[in-house]
Amino acid sequence: MVSPLFQCLTLSAVRFIASVPRVENSVFVFVHKLNRTSLSSDALTINSQILAANSPVKSLFTEGDVFVPMTRNARICNNCRWPTSGSLVQVPYTVSASFSSTEMNVINSAINGFHLSTCIRFVPYKDQTNYISIVKKDGCWSLVGLTGGSQEISLGVGCIQNGIIQHEIIHALGFWHEQSRSDRNIYVKINYENIQTGLEGNFQQLETNNLNVPYDYSSVMHYGPKDFSKNGGDTITPLNPSATIGQRIGMSENDILKINKLYSCGAQKRSILGGSM
Ligand SMILES: [Zn+2]
Q1: Rounded to an integer, what distance in angstroms lies between the CA atom of residue 37 and that of residue 41?
Q2: Does the entry annotate any disulfide bonds, and if so which pairs (predicted)?
């Protein structure tokens, strides 16, 4: 069973990020042990892993891992795309020196996945106005879309996995969770009776631009079936009984397609998961 989630923020993200308390590793270890008493590690979905990692700072987020500044309407993402330069979209970024070489390899591999599949190019920061700062704070979290200036993606303890890193980066590129889509009720049933009391807001349906891409059960941005469950029962049930949700491998073909459509990328490139587009 995953940890609870949260209300929208009441202060600016900048101040929140600056004030995130340090949490000792032992707390995280406890959280992970707690999860594994009710759900095997193999069964942990990408979102449940994110929620577990974020548990000590859970009150800072909406939808588990998304910072929402009060200074803008985060539900509307009209001007949150990173700018296109020629046929590519350059996203300047820095990575904290606090990551180990092993962690850096995983981060670089996850980033390279975007280079192989999309027109997004993460480039070293060189005094650009807007850039992503990948940091090692408490939990896994990101803002949604380009927010202006320096914006952080946190990859804390429990977050250094390809799927989680790509999940947070996709938030920063402008996407919310898949089950928030405007058409989600055609594809999934939300079981409110199983959601932890007070956390129903994490299952909001949003007005989203779906880019004519089909609803994607296999999206790395999709919640798992038991996320936010209070009783072990499923909180989200795919209406297609053969569908599974909450994969943690990495970007799906439709995740890639959506990025390429949002950013008007050229010819589609091969999928990270090995399939053709
Ligand atoms: Zn997320």
Answers
A1: 9
A2: 77-80
Q: What is the pLDDT of residues 52-102, one digit of tens each?
A: 777 765 655 666 777 654 333 334 566 789 999 889 999 999 999 999 999
Q: Which two tokens stand for residue 30?
A: 């406890």
Closest CA to 63 of 161, 208, 271, 162: 208
The percent of residues in the chain predicted with pLDDT above 70, rounded, is 72
Among 59-68, 165-174, 186-195, 267-276, the minimum mean pLDDT is found in 267-276
Task: Say whether pLDDT at 133 is over 60.
Answer: yes
CB 176 within 8 A of CB 63: yes
Query: Helix or strand or coil: residue 155?
Result: strand
Residue 171 annotated as binding site? yes
C-beta neighbour count of 27 within 10 angstroms: 14
Paired strand residues for 121: 90
Secondary structure class of 125 (helix, strand, coil) = coil
In the chain, how many H helices and how many E strands?
A: 6, 9
Q: Residue 115, annotated ligand binder?
A: no
Q: Domains, the chain, ranges and CATH?
A: 44-71+80-263 (3.40.390.10)
CA-wise closest residue to 163 among 67, 33, 58, 45: 45
Among the options 168, 178, 193, 207, which is catalytic?
168
Question: Can you give the pLDDT at residue 114?
Answer: 98
- Confirm whether 193 is a catalytic residue: no
CA 253 / ligand 1 centre spacing (Å): 18
pLDDT at 42 over 90: no
